[in-house]
Amino acid sequence: MEKDILIKDDWQRCVEFHGHICPGLAIGYKAVQIGMGELREWCTQQGVDLGEIVAIVQNDACGVDAVQVLTGCTFGKGNLLFRDHGKQVFTFVRRADGQGVRVALKFGVLENKSHQELRAKVMAGIGSDEEVAAFQAGQRELARRIVEGEAAEFFVWRRVQIALPGGPKLNPTVPCAFCGEGVMEQRAHVREGKIACPECAEKYESRVLVLNK
Known about the structure:
Distance between the termini: 63 Å
CATH architecture of the largest domain: 2-Layer Sandwich
Shape: flat
CATH class of the largest domain: Alpha Beta
Strand order of the largest sheet: 2-1-3-4-5
Number of helices: 8
């Protein structure tokens, strides 16, 4: 049987979904390889199926795109959980019993003074064409190192037992007294004794109303 030329490797799928190659995407890619590999090994040892996976991410950076592509976990399905901790930490858990693997990027492992200086200039829009090209080349090289390198060079990981929240819930929607838009009841606030969405609770004028003026 001929190999299907439309089948793409995992890294290529991640790059196409994310839109470009960068170290952040590589971090998520490698974290999935480690976490899911360890979890599958545990399942094989225990003689159980992998089943549904829940991914817990502690950042909202590039690597989360790789998590979505490779695990199929998404916010819409309720099996991608975001913890706003600002950490390059990814946990992959079996829904059935909470058995999981926590993968963390080692602190300082990606530090490179010259590359960081280039990054600052490029992000500020003051880098020359040569500096921009050098920065982009450095990004690609760092991503390559992460993807192709030994996992233990960049990450630490361990088995964990997680108490997961229940699956997706149907939450009632209530009208905001200020903008008239619907808001999930558990996200609503009270302002001047009335139900307010988070935007209006902060006295933020809805963009919809601004555009309609």
